[in-house]
Amino acid sequence: MSERIASAELRAKLMSADEAAQFVNNGDLVGMSGFTGAAYPKALPTAIANKAKEAHAKGDAFTIDMLTGASTAPDCDGVLAEAEAVNYRMPYQSDPIMRKAINAGSMKYQDIHLSHSGLQVEQGFFGEMDVAIVEVTRITEEGHLIPSSGVGNNLEYLAAAKKIIIEVNEWQALELEGMADIWSVPHLPNRTPIPINNVGDRIGNPYIQIDTNKVVAVVETNAPDRNAPFKPFDDVSAKIAGNFLDFLEGEVAAGRLTYDGYIMQSGVGNVPNAVMAGLLDSKFENIQAYTEVVQDGMLDLIDAGKMTVASATSFALSPEYADKMNREAATYRKSLVLRPLQISNSPEVIRRMGLIASNGMIEADIYGNINSTHVNGTRVMNGIGGSGDFTRNAFISSFISPSVAKDGAISAVVPFASHIDHTEHDAMVVITEYGFADLRGLAPRDRVAKMVSVAHPDYRALLEEYYDRALKSTTSFQQTPHDLKTAFNFHLNMIEKGSMKG
Amino acid sequence: MSERIASAELRAKLMSADEAAQFVNNGDLVGMSGFTGAAYPKALPTAIANKAKEAHAKGDAFTIDMLTGASTAPDCDGVLAEAEAVNYRMPYQSDPIMRKAINAGSMKYQDIHLSHSGLQVEQGFFGEMDVAIVEVTRITEEGHLIPSSGVGNNLEYLAAAKKIIIEVNEWQALELEGMADIWSVPHLPNRTPIPINNVGDRIGNPYIQIDTNKVVAVVETNAPDRNAPFKPFDDVSAKIAGNFLDFLEGEVAAGRLTYDGYIMQSGVGNVPNAVMAGLLDSKFENIQAYTEVVQDGMLDLIDAGKMTVASATSFALSPEYADKMNREAATYRKSLVLRPLQISNSPEVIRRMGLIASNGMIEADIYGNINSTHVNGTRVMNGIGGSGDFTRNAFISSFISPSVAKDGAISAVVPFASHIDHTEHDAMVVITEYGFADLRGLAPRDRVAKMVSVAHPDYRALLEEYYDRALKSTTSFQQTPHDLKTAFNFHLNMIEKGSMKG
């Protein structure tokens, strides 16, 4: 397989993952590729985890500070967390073992807007990076890197790191070459506009240029990306998708959107995929996506001729669709552009595109503040990801969620959000299976009835009771009525009695 | 004075403010100029207020929905609120009478990011605008408008409105002409990059072009902008300014900033002016400001040769400095650029500039969530203004505040912010008279000690007690430890006992 390493200089650095792990030391700041289960290094994490375990067995300290594009997979975040090999982690994760370590307080996790993560490394907030470990599809004769199934923060990490380890993954289709569009925003103080005017504009090269002198190891792998399959759509997801389409139709009726002018941004998950399935049968045509990840539903839309182009930084495909991608990459690359995270999630380009953002949430309060990250205000689930990048700069920003979780024990609409990731200034529309709450143009008090209308019927009276109490508790000072004594009663009920209903 | 109205077509529409008020009707959506006490219409608000009072005396309904650039003054927001003439208000206000009406629930107020406010009108979220009322310095022969002391959302309102009323204010110096740089971001779906690469770049015209057919009235005025004088610096402000400079020096020492590379954004107020006074005696040279408003301290920096250029959308000057500006506008216009709010506060340009943002706050919590707007979570003070536009896109974002207010009864550091306008993902540095808390690169638990260190000594033990309780209350789930039962005890103490200390 070494035909994938066309550079003689770099072919000379071929070694095993265990040998390459010698270049990763205790206390190192390590930047890795990887974004929503795609394009993460497949071999080095296990090798590093083994090195950590050996050190720990001898009573020696061994941890790294680990930076990625976003979440990875069990054979990356999982093995490293299990080996207690990570001291600090940013900007996003979704691994069960790692999440447990984070919430137990044994691992430090900083939840950073994705568009800021590589930028903060570039700006020097993390000091020097010791090692970058990046998966690629192929190395060219000149030593350029052809990205695999995602780009993420690879440019920033490869530029910042003192040492580079490259994993060449044979499982990734060679036909991915040409999908990536690599353009680097000039560094301060010479930043210039990002010259993207349309979703599909290509402005750079299909490869990443590096300082090959920094490469200390090249490792061959042959292992699949690991993405979870999506669940079949249930009735609730279908209803939410229907309400989302009703909302879009309303925008068309109001003259703010046309049937061939919809630019989509979509968070990851079952509900977004249900929304995309709904679009297949809608009147919307020539849909475009300026988003973070390419999902199954987008490939279906492209196959059906409903979507013309999708721009993202990575794939987030089910195993079935990942295989399909590997078979048909030569076709899909005509309709897909993979960009560096700083560009896929750029506030500048997002605002320019005029997209409609839709992201999931844990809960929203009666005024439209959104909690995307923490259960009961304390336990982090995954992280904010790019939801803030898109919400803050979208033409219209929406949040979608089933109205209840855990068989009705948890309401997605609460009196006071127990953690706030998106403020009342940012969220415009909240959508559940009961409809959509359009908060645009509304003062806080006028938002309450809208938010209650999308809550589960079991919780509506409880929310109204809270609002009545809030109105009475602070009679003379109430742009935003609250009764701070009972603001978290929903959450305290959940903690103490197992249900927000009490 | 009609030489200020060079267009014969528009001179023919000269009338009194009372006559012009005929064009403003009950229920109208009215867009006005005005930004931090500058450039607001001086005559029409009183005429509209009188019309409202007359209607109310007859038992008739009369209110308008009122949109501006930001805050205005007693003879605009004040008289209209006093006459109960406003139904809905956005995006920002700071008038005591209006604030009272808002918090009493008799007026609706939507607190919108300033960079979104004109955009949302342009995007059609408010439907058709009935009237735009805009103050200018002069009308040219072609009917172009020369902005007075601010630009704000004038472009969006003049474009959206069916009718236009122009106030020509003789008090504003004719030499302001040339200070404004008017460039309109093309509307969706044709938005393009904003071609500003440097703070002082001029990309447009010194005038606003309008459809003169929409002009229904031109009114002459001669009245000053109304800005409050700043208080003399006190000891606390001086200490905060010193800590801010220490923070800047630390960035220089870390190699992230140079003495001639500081680009400032600064919120309005006494503390920011103290910071600017501190910069006069600092090692920083060739300072630039890409900010929202031009303040006294910036003129001092320009006079002293320490600041080369400031870009903003408006003035926020004390009466003394406003007079100075009127006398010396011909000189200052070489160093000042006034831009439309969509550009002064553009996420795109802000991120490109790499500026250091510093804004005031009401309170921060132990994890770095910031409350900029609501006392005790319910009573709105002013609004978020542009603080989110800058915080979210700055190179470094800081918040500055005295550690206590009301003689120590209110702490600026609390366990849980009672309203959240900027999240833990956005705030990087919090500065009080006790030092600066640098939260960059830190997981939530590691932020607590930093935040406690900048709290007033009287509150440190109380904050530590809360954190200990939080650690114990949710032992197994605590990325962000909280004890939701007592999270708002500081605020409840304030409400019930008059002091957060209890």
SSE blueprint:
The structure is a homodimer.
Chain A: H1 8-11, H2 17-20, E1 29-32, H3 44-57, E2 64-67, H4 74-82, E3 86-90, H5 96-103, E4 108-109, H6 114-122, E5 129-139, E6 145-147, H7 154-160, E7 161-169, E8 215-221, H8 235-253, E9 263-266, H9 270-280, E10 287-290, E11 293-295, H10 296-303, E12 307-312, E13 314-316, H11 319-332, E14 336-338, H12 341-344, H13 347-353, E15 356-359, E16 363-365, E17 370-371, E18 374-375, E19 379-380, H14 387-391, E20 396-400, E21 404-405, E22 410-411, E23 413-414, E24 429-432, E25 435-438, H15 444-454, H16 457-473, H17 489-497
Parallel strand pairs in A: 1-2, 1-5, 2-3, 3-4, 5-7, 7-8, 9-10, 9-15, 10-12, 11-13, 12-14, 15-20, 16-23, 20-24
Antiparallel strand pairs in A: 5-6, 16-17, 18-19, 21-22, 24-25
Helix pairs in contact in A: 3-4, 4-5, 6-7, 8-9, 9-10, 15-16
Count of distinct structural domains of chain A: 2
Please name the two chains that share the biggest interface, counting residues whose Cβ lies under 8 Å from a Cβ on the partner chain: A-B, 80 and 80 residues
Question: Looking at CATH, which topology of the largest domain in chain A would you report?
Answer: Glutaconate Coenzyme A-transferase
- Helix vs. strand class of chain A: alpha/beta
CATH architecture of the largest domain in chain A: 3-Layer(aba) Sandwich
Tally of DSSP β-strands of chain A? 25
Give me the number of helical elements of chain A: 17
How much of the polypeptide of chain A forms β-strand, as a percent range? 15-25%
User: What low-confidence regions of chain A span 5 or more consecutive residues with pLDDT below 50?
Assistant: none
